Amino acid sequence: MTWKKTRETEVVDTMTDAQDHRTEEDAPLTEQPTMIQLMKEDLQAARAQDPAARSDLEVAIGYSGIHAMWSHRVAHELWKRKAGKAPARLLSQFMRFLTGVEIHPGATIGRRPFIDHGSMIVIGETAVIGDDVLMYQGATLGGRALDKTERHPKIGNNVMLGSGAMLIGPVTVGDDVAIGSNAVVVRDIPSDSIALGLPASHRHKEGNYPLDPRHDLIDPATLL
Asked: Compositional bias of type Basic and acidic residues: which residue ranges (predicted)?
C-alpha cells in the first residue's frame, strides 16, 4: 500500500512537472490587439488628451484626426496584402481629401496616437511611430532620398510633435521627447530630450522632475 501511494505520487509529480514545462515553453506569444481594439484605444486617447472632447460620439463624428487614423488602420492592413496596395492608396488619398491628413498606408503607427487639429500632416511610407505619440497640425515625417529604402523618421514612445514640426530623413527620435513648433529635425534626438530650432538642437531636461512632453503642450521650452 505504501509503495502504491508513493508510486502514484511520483506519477502525479512527473505529470505536473511536464505540464509546467510545457506551459513555459509552449505559452503563446502576447496577442496583438485587433483593429477594433486599436480603434477603441485611438478614441480613448483623443478623449484623454483633449479637454474639449465631451463624449465618444462627438470624437468619433467630429474629429478629423480620428477619421484619418482609423482609415489608416484599414489602409495599412490592405497594404500588407499583395492585391491590397491599390485599394490602400485610394483609401489614403480619399481620406487626405476629406481631412487634410496624408498618411501613406505603408507607415507603421503604434497604439494610442492622437492627431490634434488634424490638418496638413504628412507621414511617409517608411515612417515608424511608437505608442502614445501626439501630433499637432502641420507636423511632417518626410524623406530626403529617392531610393526605395527606409528613408523616413522613426519615432519612439510618448513623443510630442509641435505644430509645424518637420522631421526629415531616416532620423531616430527616442522615447519621452518633445519637439517644438516649427522645429526642423535632421539629426537623431535621444530619449528624455527637448528639440527646438532650425535646424533643431536638443538638450536634456533639467531638474529632478520627470519629463512628460504631454503636459507641456504649448511650448517645450518651458522645460529648459
From this structure: 1-10
**C-alpha–C-alpha distance, residues 108 and 148, integer Å:** 16
Average pLDDT, whole number, for the chain?
A: 82
Q: Provide the pairing of β-strand 101-103 with 154-155.
A: unpaired
Q: Quick one: average pLDDT of 78-102? A: 93
Domain ranges of the chain: 34-223
- Give the confidence band of 100 by pLDDT, cuts at 50, 70, 90: very high
Specify the DSSP element, H or E, that contains 223. Answer: none
Q: Does domain 34-223 have CATH number 2.160.10.10?
A: yes
Higher pLDDT, 165 or 25: 165
Q: In the predicted model, what is the mean pLDDT of residues 22-36?
A: 62
Kindly give the interhelix angle for 64-79 and 35-49, rounded to the nearest 10 degrees. 160
